[in-house]
Amino acid sequence: MCITSEEFFDYMIDSGALFVWFFHYMPVGNAAAPDLLPTPEQRETVYRRIREYRKTKALFSMDFQNDAEYVGGCIAGGRRYLHINAKGDVEPCVFIHYSNCNIHDVTLLQALKSPLFMAYHDGQPFNENMLRPCPMLENPEKLRAMVKETGAASTDYESQEDVDHLCGKTVPYAEKWTPKADRLWNECLACKGCKNGEGCQ
Asked: In whole angstroms, what is the distance from residue 135 CA to residue 141 CA?
């Protein structure tokens, strides 16, 4: 059963679900497989089907990667949330395992003022195209620069991953997604909802 099929949505509704949040695969970790990333065609299918089912199904569905227009881009880096791992490292995102500080040594406010978090703050939004919100997945040059400029260290438990290695896996994805993302975003901007600031339905 495909996760974007009507059958799957009906199954979730029949099971009592009221809310579903879709996350795209993130190739984090030295052993991560970039070939598991969705193709541009698959991502567009997810984009269109979730929006269609939001209109017709009694299930509130959100798409972590494709619904950034509703929150103004990436929500990480303390803008809307952050991640603290089991060792206490304060990371800008659950998928971004780099940090300048540990919650055992600093307050949460101090962590939010740390170099990496301030780089996130100053860099937002990472792209004016809300279908390209992530500094790792769609704008890898942004994450690479922030980590290097702030001296943030890898916090990966299993195998520390150099930011060049991580971003090297997402550059081809970003290059393939960009033309389709730009076309879809221009379609979105042309619709009445976006002109009224309401976002696409």
From this structure: 7
**Residue pLDDT, tens place only, 161-199:** 999 999 999 999 999 999 999 999 999 888 755 544 445
Q: What is the DSSP string of 77-126?
A: TTTS--EE-TT-BEESBTTB-EES-BTTTS-HHHHHTSHHHHHHHHH-SS
The structure's pTM equals 0.90
Q: How long a stretch of residues is the chain?
A: 201
Tokens matching residue 166: 């991580």
pLDDT in tens, 44-79: 999 999 999 999 999 999 999 999 999 999 999 999
Which residues lie closer than 8 Å to 117 by C-beta, 6 or more apart?
A: 77, 78, 82, 90, 92, 100, 111
Mind giving me the DSSP string for the chain? --TTSHHHHHHHHHTT--EEEE------STT--GGGSPPHHHHHHHHHHHHHHHHHSSSEEEETTT-GGGTTS--TTTTS--EE-TT-BEESBTTB-EES-BTTTS-HHHHHTSHHHHHHHHH-SS-SSTTS--TTTT-HHHHHHHHHHHTPEE--SSS---HHHHHHHHHHHHHHHHHHHHHHHHHHHHSHHHHTTS---
